[in-house]
TrEMBL record:
It is a multi-pass membrane protein. It comes from Poseidonibacter parvus. Gene3D superfamilies: MFS general substrate transporter like domains (1.20.1250.20). One of its GO terms (molecular function) is transmembrane transporter activity. Residues 9-378 form the Major facilitator superfamily (MFS) profile domain. It is found in: Cell membrane. GO terms for cellular component: plasma membrane. This is MFS transporter. The chain crosses the membrane at residues 12-35, 41-63, 75-94, 100-121, 133-154, 160-180, 201-228, 240-258, 267-285, 291-310, 331-350, 356-374. Keywords: Cell membrane, Membrane, Transmembrane, Transmembrane helix, Transport.
């Protein structure tokens, strides 16, 4: 099936994803920058940023019930309205408790919207097209998130309109979805796995997903604070984030090819070691702008591949008697826990030392690199196929993963 025949019937979903991802990338980075400009304590910034990921975790638990009850289009409008309300209230006045609550609401809404869009994509995909649809989804999400970073360069006098711009972007997605003719799918209830059970089944995948969530969550929420502490340049923050995210997109395919050839255990160890090595260079050489851009690109090359590698590892080792979809959802939940804890811990640490962020990145990634090598190697014949995954995703993404389809590996 040609790309045109795949994309055209669901183009409205991809446009909606693009508008949401631009707003997601823009606001997620801007919040910390804006709070730092107000002189807010790093610990408080970390708490406010962590609230967004707490909302994401709650959304993975509760939003599916709302969607199943009132339908996809109504739920999309409701979640989008909540997100817009939270954005606009940000611009009314600043209060630490209020902003934490607003970030929680926006996180809940955003990830609820992702669940809706992903379930729609899954509804319109077949075994033949599922992998291509997920690849297009990944590319669009990375590029749109990177594009959102350019809004940080907005003129000083228009900074207060960032939240209005974010609201307009969400409204565009609502307009597109309101006119869609795509059939609403039926959401099946999510089965829950306990963490001890998941760890006993896929220990390396569980640890990798948690550390990946910690590093990526810290990247979006607290790394801009680190850069401002070094240079006090918003333009530098914008370009750094853009370059890093583009690096993350570029690395998906070569890392996938290498992991299919040499195995996930080895690639997780190599990628996490390179992440640790890059973090160490940030501590030593991040004072100059050129070095920041180069290191940012290499950081993006590595940290954004850890979670896809974790999911691939789970697919490698789980036998047919286990429900890989629910295991993948639990790995995503583990990733969310790491993202939630990251700004809390780094926020406190940055108050002690500007280098705490990369000290924590170095420590966790180095430990993961060593831990991966202690795990059992999977035989080549048992390897699944690496699949690229968006930088942020909802609880329906595992359902869209083409590895769940029968004979997918043989066809690839």
């Amino acid at each position: 099936m040609g790309l045109k025949k795949i994309i055209f019937p669901i183009s409205s979903l991809f446009f909606a994803i693009a508008f949401l991802a631009i707003g997601y990338g823009m606001i997620l980075t801007f919040i910390g920058v804006y709070l730092k400009d107000l002189g807010v304590n790093n610990t408080v910034i970390g708490i406010i940023n962590a609230a967004f990921f707490l909302g994401a975790i709650l959304s993975s638990i509760f939003s599916q019930k709302i969607i199943s009850t009132v339908g996809h289009i109504r739920s999309f409008a409701a979640f989008a309205a909540l997100m817009i309300i939270s954005f606009l209230l940000h611009s009314v006045f600043f209060n630490e408790i209020l902003w934490a609550a607003l970030r929680l609401i926006s996180g809940f809404s955003f990830y609820g919207l992702l669940i809706i869009l992903e379930s729609w994509l899954n509804e319109k995909s077949s075994e033949e097209s599922r992998g291509k649809i997920l690849a297009i989804y990944t590319i669009i999400f990375y590029l749109a998130t990177a594009l959102g970073q350019l809004f940080l360069n907005i003129d000083e006098h228009f900074k207060q309109f960032i939240f209005t711009i974010g609201s307009v972007l969400v409204l565009f997605s609502v307009l597109i979805i309101s006119l869609t003719k795509i059939k609403e799918p039926i959401l099946e209830p999510f089965d829950k796995f306990s963490f001890p059970k998941i760890f006993s089944i896929v220990p390396l995948a569980t640890v990798t997903s948690f550390i990946s969530g910690f590093v990526v969550g810290g990247f979006f929420t607290m790394l801009p604070i680190y850069i401002l502490m070094q240079s006090d340049s918003l333009e530098l923050v914008s370009k750094f984030m853009l370059i890093s995210i583009i690096g993350g997109l570029i690395s998906q395919w070569p890392v996938g090819i290498l992991s299919d050839k040499y195995g996930r255990r080895k690639l997780i160890s190599i990628v996490s070691f390179l992440s640790a090595f890059t973090s160490l260079f940030f501590i030593l050489y991040a004072q100059e702008e050129l070095y920041l851009y180069i290191l940012g690109f290499f950081l993006g090359l590595t940290i954004f591949t850890l979670y896809p590698l974790a999911v691939a590892r789970a697919n490698d080792v789980v036998d047919e008697s286990k429900d890989i979809i629910e295991i993948s959802r639990t790995l995503l939940f583990t990733y969310g826990i790491g993202s939630f804890l990251s700004p809390l811990i780094i926020g406190v640490g940055l108050s002690l030392s500007p280098n705490f962020l990369f000290i924590s990145f170095f420590t966790l990634c180095f430990i993961l690199s060593i831990y991966a090598l202690t795990q059992e190697r999977v035989k080549d014949k048992d390897l699944s196929v690496f699949v690229n995954i968006p930088v942020a995703s909802g609880a329906e993404l595992p359902q869209l993963d083409p590895r769940q389809d029968e004979n997918y590996e043989k066809e690839v």
